[in-house]
Design brief:
The chain has about 100 residues and is an alpha+beta fold. The chain contains four helices and three strands, in the order H-E-E-H-H-H-E. It has one domain. The protein has a three-stranded mixed sheet with strand order 2-1-3, with no helix packed on it. It is globular. The model has no long low-confidence stretch (mean pLDDT about 85).
């Protein structure tokens, strides 16, 4: 949950399994990264993100923080990760899920 805190200032205690897992490879500032990502569903009150713990490189590379509606996610032409988010949004509305879904992107 370090990333959540670093990028938003929000601290959460996670007591569930991830809803999604994704393995990805990408280039960032000339370096190649391979990473395993876990996505959790967290319900919270609305809050203003406070990204005070970002590194200088993260400050340079993150363009903005904002809340998105499902409709905005479906319509956007912006890059959103995971790419399957719009199509899998209904998964998030289920009261429970059997196990982590592995995204093949």
């Amino acid at each position: 949950m370090r990333e959540l805190w670093e990028e938003t200032g929000f601290q959460a205690k996670i007591e569930t399994e991830p809803i999604w897992e994704r393995r990805t490879q990408f280039e960032f500032y000339g370096d190649t990264y391979e990473q395993r990502e876990f996505y959790f569903l967290i319900q919270t009150e609305n809050f203003v993100p406070d990204p005070a713990s970002l590194s200088p490189l993260e400050v340079e590379s993150i363009l903005e923080h904002r809340w998105w509606s499902h409709e905005e996610i479906l319509r956007t032409e912006d890059m959103i990760y995971p790419a399957a988010l719009a199509g899998r949004f209904q998964d998030l509305l289920q009261p429970t899920w059997a196990s982590t879904i592995y995204l093949d992107e």
